[in-house]
């Protein structure tokens, strides 16, 4: 018989109980934070029409190259979702009776046939929050505050970099970058942290920009993190004026919330996705142990109206956390994993009695595992130690005769006999 190839598909992986236990605790923590902010749960299909996911209001050309596509029996062109944003925009477009503002969260698998590195796979989990119907910077401020709260609860000190697309596009227009080239230029500027200023300038030269325009962008890259650079273009561009006003309004909220030290204005942050229309932000670990972002988001006011086919604007702000990269960050800190069970029962020939004790403890809300194999007591205790179980219960002939069971505290070694009526 030919041996079956049972390896995981490249870019996917299994999470064994210890790892999945951490990930589920992370999900519960995030869900608790999302709920505290009044976000309602939502679930959308993994499978979508290709036309929807390939919309110009979707992830842009770079992500579309990574999209998994297929054809069903009815010869319909379908695609696996590459994020949770466009499926959410579809929900709002399909349900015009939703009460606004509408805040939702969703945690789910997404798929991209892209490069693989630490914390970045081809099948991965995103944790998204989106707010529709709020047209002021208070929505962005709330998303950023939520990110600070969530990361504090997860034990992941982080910093948020933020910028405004209106500032960037307005400035590029003022210095002579043609509208049709602005998206490519923004994508290139967004690579600054990865490839450095000299390589950014080389790419800009290759895009056919004039020497003067390229030189002006190069001086911008060297200008530092000052809003003053943009203010020189304010009289020439409405976009720059609006961008400055929005950034200053956001900064006022961040200062009032006392999180301004965790939020850094970064004029080079672009987020290459064309969907974004105003504020953009990315979350990075404070210690830099993982260089890629652990979350990102921004305002995308045109996506929902675009799907409906109208010029109507739906004020929409979102933030997305990458569960896999955050898990890698937590794992790298060597934090001890929480035990998956509270009690581990070892029946010495007394399986029925073990079930009775387990049932009572479960009714009290405890997580209980019974050892049903033929392990001797020594091996059972070794397993309990390895898995970090706090209490082991031993039930043998003597315990049943005396209507009690023995409870061993695996941390202190203390043993205690607990009364229990077996019959």
TrEMBL record:
Pfam family, any one: tRNA-synt_His
Acetylation recorded as keyword: no
GO function terms (MF aspect): ATP binding; catalytic activity, acting on a protein; histidine-tRNA ligase activity; transferase activity
Keywords: Aminoacyl-tRNA synthetase, ATP-binding, Cytoplasm, Ligase, Nucleotide-binding, Protein biosynthesis
Domain (Aminoacyl-transfer RNA synthetases class-II family profile): residue spans on this chain: 1-423
InterPro entries: aa-tRNA-synth_II, aa-tRNA-synth_II/BPL/LPL, Anticodon-bd, Anticodon-bd_dom_sf, His-tRNA-ligase, HisRS-like_core, HisRS/HisZ
GO CC annotations on file: cytoplasm
Domain of life: Bacteria
Catalytic reaction(s) noted: tRNA(His) + L-histidine + ATP = L-histidyl-tRNA(His) + AMP + diphosphate + H(+)
CDD domains: HisRS-like_core
A biological process term (GO) from this entry: histidyl-tRNA aminoacylation
Similarity section: Belongs to the class-II aminoacyl-tRNA synthetase family.
Protein name according to UniProt: Histidine--tRNA ligase
Organism: Alkalicoccobacillus plakortidis
């Amino acid at each position: 018989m030919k041996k079956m190839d049972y390896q995981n598909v490249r870019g996917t992986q299994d999470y064994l109980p210890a790892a999945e236990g951490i990930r589920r605790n992370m999900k519960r923590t995030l869900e608790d934070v999302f709920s505290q902010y009044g976000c309602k749960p939502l679930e959308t299909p993994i499978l979508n029409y290709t036309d929807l996911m390939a919309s110009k209001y979707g992830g842009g050309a770079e992500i579309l190259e990574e999209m998994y596509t297929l054809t069903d029996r009815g010869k319909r062109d379908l695609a696996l979702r590459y994020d949770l944003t466009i499926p959410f925009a579809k929900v709002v477009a399909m349900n015009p009776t939703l009460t606004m503002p509408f805040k939702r969260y969703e945690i789910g698998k997404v798929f991209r046939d892209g490069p693989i590195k630490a914390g970045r796979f081809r099948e991965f989990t995103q944790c998204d929050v989106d707010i529709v119907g709020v047209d002021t910077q208070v929505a962005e401020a709330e998303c950023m505050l939520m990110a600070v709260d969530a990361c504090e609860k997860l034990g992941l000190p982080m910093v948020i970099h933020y910028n405004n697309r209106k500032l960037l596009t307005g400035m590029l227009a003022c210095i002579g970058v043609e509208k049709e080239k602005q998206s490519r230029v923004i994508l290139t500027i967004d690579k600054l942290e990865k490839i450095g200023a000299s390589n950014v300038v080389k790419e800009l030269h290759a895009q056919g920009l004039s020497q003067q325009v390229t030189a002006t962008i190069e001086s911008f890259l060297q200008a530092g993190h000052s809003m003053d650079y943009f203010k020189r273009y304010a009289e020439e561009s409405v976009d720059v004026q609006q961008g400055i006003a929005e950034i200053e309004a956001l900064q006022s909220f961040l200062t009032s919330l006392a999180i301004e030290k965790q939020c850094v204005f970064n004029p080079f942050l672009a987020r290459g996705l064309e969907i974004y229309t105003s504020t953009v932000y990315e979350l990075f670990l404070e210690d830099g142990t993982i260089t890629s972002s652990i979350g990102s988001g921004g305002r995308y006011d045109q996506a929902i109206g675009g799907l409906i086919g109208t010029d109507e604007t739906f004020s929409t702000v979102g933030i997305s956390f990458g569960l896999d990269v955050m898990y890698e960050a937590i794992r790298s800190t060597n934090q001890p994993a929480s035990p998956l069970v509270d009690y581990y029962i070892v029946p010495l020939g007394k399986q029925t009695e073990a079930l009775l004790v387990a049932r009572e403890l479960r009714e009290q809300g405890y997580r209980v595992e019974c050892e049903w194999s033929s392990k001797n007591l020594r091996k059972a205790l070794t397993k309990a130690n390895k898995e970090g179980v706090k209490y082991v219960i031993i039930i043998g002939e003597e315990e049943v005769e005396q209507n009690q069971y023995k409870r061993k505290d695996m941390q202190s070694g203390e043993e205690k006999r607990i009364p229990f009526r077996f019959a």
